[in-house]
Specification:
This protein has helices at 37-43, 45-54, 69-72, 127-138, 146-151, 221-226, 255-275, 336-361; strands spanning 6-7, 17-20, 25-28, 34-35, 75-79, 86-90, 93-97, 104-106, 119-120, 153-187, 190-214, 236-237, 247-249, 283-312, 315-322, 328-330. By secondary structure, the protein is α+β, with helices and mostly antiparallel strands. The strands form 3 sheets. Strands 1, 7, 8, 9, 10, 11, 12, 13, 14, 15 and 16 form an 11-stranded mixed β-sheet that branches. A 3-stranded antiparallel β-sheet has the order 2-3-4. Strand 14 (283-312) and strand 15 (315-322) form a beta hairpin.
């Protein structure tokens, strides 16, 4: 049976290859040789085709037969073409690396036919940039525990190509507002205030292109939303040669399941855009907000994300960085001792200021 996976190895020395964000080429970890994605795609075309044809059927190795039926339904076992070790992956794994020989490994069957992404944005930033961003993220946060800042250790740093659906569509809007204008003038000894009431209506169509929604159940939606936007001018046709050195899963949330998220974003953005045309009023209260989403094409893309996790006080804190733009997001712990200290100091200062004001007034 042909190999189900492809190891990307240097044509010069056989060392592991990884995609280098700086040069935008594949770089050999051993001899330092570089190759374009076009060169590597051509070299591995036959191996990828054979691996795709082999599929992702469950291996009948000694290890896999020990799994329960439920476990086996969601796991896959592949043999590393370089060292023969068994790679245990879940059913959605599309790119990983062999834990024994370190060779980047791609599962071509996960990109076969309708599973093949339309586009990819290659990584532009390296792992070192993600670590630097984490250090910057700590700055200016006085309630961050000192031990967390000084002694925390990063558990994992993963460069992940996250599957995204990108939705094209339009929003047909029918909006109405109750608006007012207020004028004042003098009339004898009186100040007369006149309030004018208006019925303001807006109808129109707002068109959208590539509204994103991540297609992985493993990724926190709010975190993926927070590291947007990606610059879509960097989108290029998908090629597996961009994957070596990174992790990737095929989508496990369908375009139909994700459509509601995209529709809500289109609706809210359309309302914001159209309501922005209503101006010159003292007040403007929405009375009707009818928005009809007209779906169009859906694109499947892999977008670059650095995922970092760090452990403190037996808790894992997760961080994410946009692998193209560097936008960073994450959760941080709060030192309650520092919190109460700040609270007491600020309260004391305010009470002292209040006492001084009262003393002056008396």
């Amino acid at each position: 049976m042909p190999d189900q996976v492809t190891n990307y190895k240097c044509p010069s020395c056989g060392g592991p290859l990884h995609f280098d964000p700086d040069s935008q080429k594949l770089l050999c970890d051993f001899c330092g040789s570089t190759f374009t994605t076009e060169e590597i795609s051509k070299i591995y075309a036959d191996a990828n085709a054979a691996a795709a044809a082999a599929g992702t059927d469950l291996s009948e190795s000694n290890d896999t037969v020990q799994w329960s039926e439920e476990e086996a339904a969601h796991m896959r076992a592949y043999s590393c073409p370089s060292c023969g070790a068994q790679l245990i992956c879940d059913e959605n794994t599309a790119a990983t690396s062999c834990p024994y020989c370190g060779n980047p490994t791609v599962v071509p069957a996960q990109f076969d036919g309708a599973l093949r992404p339309d586009y990819i944005i290659p990584f532009r930033l390296k792992k070192e940039e993600a670590v630097r961003k984490l250090s910057e993220f700590y700055k200016g946060k006085p309630l961050l525990p000192t031990a967390f800042k000084n002694n925390n250790h990063i558990e994992e740093i993963k460069g992940v190509y996250v599957p995204f659906w990108l939705y094209d569509g339009a929003a047909a809007t029918d909006l109405a507002y109750h608006a007012t204008r207020v004028h004042s003038h003098s009339s004898g000894d009186y100040l007369v205030t006149v309030t004018e009431h208006y019925q303001v209506e807006r109808q129109g169509t707002v068109r959208f292109r590539m509204v994103p929604a991540d297609a992985s159940s493993k990724m926190p939606d709010e975190m993926m939303d927070a590291i947007e936007p990606f610059r879509y001018d960097d989108l290029i046709p998908f090629d597996m040669s961009y994957l070596p050195g990174y992790l990737a899963d095929k989508y496990d949330v369908s375009a139909e399941e994700d459509a509601d998220r995209a529709d809500v974003r289109m609706k809210n953005s359309a309302i914001e855009a159209v309501s922005g045309t209503v101006g010159g009023y003292a007040s403007c209260v929405p009375e009707k907000e009818h928005v009809h989403i007209i779906p169009d094409r859906v694109h499947y893309a892999f977008l670059p994300v650095w995922m970092l996790s760090t452990r403190w006080n037996n808790q894992i804190y997760l961080f994410a960085m946009n692998g193209q733009t560097g936008k960073f997001i994450g959760d941080l712990p709060v030192d309650m001792g520092k919190f109460w200290l700040y609270f007491i100091v600020i309260t004391a200062v305010l009470m002292a200021a209040l006492a001084l004001v009262l003393f002056v007034l008396i």
